Amino acid sequence: MPERSPETHVIDYRAAEQLLDARDPRGAIRLLDSVISAHPENTAARLLRARAFFLSAQLRPAELEFQIVLEREPDNAFAHFALGRTLERASRPDEALRHFRLAAALEPRPEFIEAARFAPDRGNGGRATGPENGAP
Predict the structure, then answer these.
(1) Cα 34 to Cα 8: distance, rounded to the nearest angstrom
(2) Phi/psi at 29 (nearest 5 deg)?
(3) According to the model, what pLDDT value does residue 2 have?
(4) What is the DSSP string of 29-87?
(5) Hey, which end of the chain has fewer CB within 10 Å, N or C?
(6) Contacts by 62-71 with C-beta closer than 8 Å and gap 24+?
(7) Cα 6 to Cα 26: distance, rounded to the nearest angstrom
(8) pLDDT value at residue 6
(9) Contacts 24+ apart (CB under 8 A), 20-29
């Protein structure tokens, strides 16, 4: 195999983004593995690989990658939100809620707030859910 250069890794990263957009998460993972092997400190590549793991239903690897991102960037609202979705999908709702609430506190985007259950829930008669109403 020819030697990989920093430019090749950038090309692989961009191609992985395109593969993820085209709904080929496994192809994206293959490209990102070499990028991360060469540059383990690259948080953007790890975040992209975590998303690819999630989209390919590889929940444990997705969880681990999101956790690495959050160790390096504890204020990354998207990583908290995505980790919450991963934990939710893995049937771990209490752990997920913690990350949803951190995401909403860091960046009050509507989808983060809704996931954090701070917004009125249409399924419960319009009552807000959260600690003030006895819900977790």
Answers:
(1) 10
(2) -60, -45
(3) 57
(4) HHHHHHHHHH-TT-HHHHHHHHHHHHHTT-HHHHHHHHHHHHHH-TT-HHHHHHHHHHH
(5) N
(6) 62/86, 63/87, 63/90, 69/43
(7) 22
(8) 77
(9) 20/48, 20/51, 20/52, 20/55, 23/55, 25/51, 25/52, 25/53, 25/54, 25/55, 25/56, 26/52, 26/56, 28/52, 29/53, 29/56
**Residue 128 β-bridge partners:** 120
pLDDT, the chain, mean? 88
pLDDT digits (tens, 9 = 90+) for 1-57: 456 777 899 999 999 999 999 999 999 999 999 999 999 999 999 999 999 999 999
3: left (phi over 0), alpha (psi -120 to 50) or beta: beta
Q: What is the DSSP letter of 90?
A: T
- 62-90 per-position pLDDT tens digit: 999 999 999 999 999 999 999 999 999 99
* Sole residue written with tokens 């995401």: 103
Q: Which amino acid is at 17?
A: E
Contacting residues for 120 by C-beta, under 8 A, at least 6 apart: 126, 127, 128
pLDDT at 3: 66
